[in-house]
Amino acid sequence: RDRGMGEYSAGCVEVVSEQARKACVALQGNSVRECGVTVTPVREWRIWSVCGAGRRALLPRIARCLRADVLCTGHTLDDQLQYMLKNVISGHPTCPPPVHKPTLGYPAKAKPLIQIPDAATEIYAQLLGIPLMEDPCPLCVPETHRFKEVFDLLSDVPKSVSHFPKVHALTDIGDGAYRWEMEKVGTAQVN
């Protein structure tokens, strides 16, 4: 609930409270301060890394206290792709599973939105009138989301094709699909 970030935390609490009321769901609120956590830089860790580590540590504990069977997060396809790209760049080409089995008294973890892009999730929420937090996190530094720029470029096929020098032609075949024609390769090049 309250991440200890003043107006931003208050705005998040307001949005979540409104959605809980609309969904007729009891809201279990916990302040990170109540758990003895503050979101401040720790040595070489950047502030958003501390915030993420705190959430990853606290959410399973809170779910266990609530006797929840499953802890669901809002990770989307964009999150999954960024995570995977970071892993590939760091030499660990692994893909996190969408469901983690329960471990030692902690509930299972699930990512039900893992195959849905951020943009589609936002449109869906708007269509259903689900409240959204419009303001970005004040701790978010744009350069930390440089992978998002890569995915935005790759998802715009006409723009991204310029980065593939061997593409001879690109034909729009409708519904966001394209036919890529590569440079011709002759038998002289093969032998």
Describe the structure.
The protein has 191 residues and is of the alpha+beta class. It contains seven helices and five strands, in the order ααβαββαααββα. It has helices spanning 7-22, 47-65, 77-89, 118-128, 146-155, 157-160, 187-190; strands at 70-72, 99-100, 108-110, 167-174, 177-182. The longest helix is centred in the first third of the chain and has 19 residues, at 47-65. It is elongated and about 70 Å long. It starts with 6 loop residues before the first helix and ends with a helix.
Briefly say what this structure is.
This protein has helices spanning 7-22, 47-65, 77-89, 118-128, 146-155, 157-160, 187-190, and strands spanning 70-72, 99-100, 108-110, 167-174, 177-182. It is an alpha+beta fold.
Mean pLDDT: 80
- Please provide the ordered H/E string of secondary-structure elements: HHEHEEHHHEEH
Q: How much strand?
A: 5-15%
Helix-residue proportion: 40-55%
Summing up helix and strand content along with how strands pair, one would put the structural category as alpha+beta
- The unreliable regions are none
Shape estimate: elongated
Helix count from the secondary structure assignment = 7
Distance between the termini: 65 Å
Tell me about the biggest sheet? Answer: 3 strands, mixed
Radius of gyration, CA atoms, in whole angstroms: 21 Å
Lateral strand order in the biggest sheet: 1-3-2
Number of strands: 5
